[in-house]
Amino acid sequence: MTTTSGLRPTPRAAAARPASRAPRPGTLVAVAGVWVVTRVVMALMLVHGFHGSDIVRVEVSVTYHNWYNVLVTGTMPHNDIMWQYPPAAAAIFLSPDLLPFLTYFQAFVALTVLCDGLILLGLCRAARRSDGSIAGALLWLGALPLLMATPFARYDVQVTLLAVAALLCLRFRPRLGGVIAGIGAMVKVWPLLTLLGTPRGKSTRDAFVAAAVSCVALLVVFSLFFRDTLGFLGNQGDRGIQIESLGGSVLMFLRVVDLWPGEITFQYGAFEYTGPYVSAIARASLALTVAGFLLLLLWRVKARRWTTATPLDAAFCAIMVFTVTSRVLSPQYLIWLLGLAAVCLTCRHTTQRPIAWLVVVATALTNLIFPVMYGTDILASTPLGTFLLCARNGILLYATVWSGIRLWKATVPADAAAL
């Protein structure tokens, strides 16, 4: 057990610390080899449209490329209702210019694969710590391919890299971790949640101040180079219930048993439900998000016992809450969960090990939901599609509740919980 001040052990605790279980060179060579093979297969799936990957490819080749064409003119594509991202996301969509000898699609995929490799490298380095484990790297290595081509056709791998890097830096360099979390927040908001579990005291102050400074600095920079940097805010409020969400699975079940007469409509860049009770379920989803984060703040106030795994576990739990209660829950959200689950498993003290493996199961089901059976069973609301979606979301909901319970029991003493 480490102290709560910057997670630095006392000299006696340091002397008693177990020897590092650093992965052997042969293990790292095997990991690198498996990564190369699996990522080549994923890229080939994307290029050749294997099992519905042709619909995955459109996101980069059409949507992102169209945004790129607007961004190079010095303005944000706020008139496109599908543009719902903070201003620093523009850097991701402009990044293929770093590889001018490739097409936009090829360059984007190549850079995404590079970010995937950097995540694996960071997880392997974390395994070399005194309390480290290679399990996190193995989870990322083996579970990401369960989503087939989807990870390489979305910019969520890049965002996950920022979140993973922030968490891995927080332990020894909280200011740097805060800067990276702030950058992530200006790309896709949720990486800011990685700061939730920073230990009380100087580490928390340093991380939060650094995050705030980096957010403000990025906003100023992008405001200087682009027009309408905050235009994305106007495209957020009218989102409905996407069919893959927790609320969407409820409506799909009611629809398949003929208890709900609603329809599926393509809007805001996704297939959403329209009809009675949709607005009420959207409000309920928002209420669940707020309630979840209030509970996380209550945990933050009452937590007394910190280990080196607590910041990782708290971040993972927070992202679980954010994801499961979302009105969207797109397939790429599982990339976030896999990344943070992998970070938790890099530490042998984590409380989230069973939750991480539940996320892997949910990821396997997600692959069936999208893209394999998306057009044939999910959009058609068949009994099989309904079962798969309800099972996936049920697993994620159960995992989220269990994650919070395990985090609470590990960090909140009985006397503090009663206050």
Automatic annotation (TrEMBL):
Signal peptide residues on this chain, from the entry's feature table: none
Membrane topology: Multi-pass membrane protein
Transmembrane feature ranges: 27-47, 104-123, 135-155, 175-196, 208-226, 280-299, 355-374, 380-399
Keyword annotations from UniProtKB, A to Z: Cell membrane, Membrane, Transferase, Transmembrane, Transmembrane helix
UniProt-annotated location(s): Cell membrane
Ranges where the record places region Disordered: 1-20
Biased composition (Low complexity): 8-20
Chief site of localization: membrane
A Pfam family hit: GT87
Family: Belongs to the glycosyltransferase 87 family.
Protein's name in the database: DUF2029 domain-containing protein
Species for this entry: Streptomyces goshikiensis
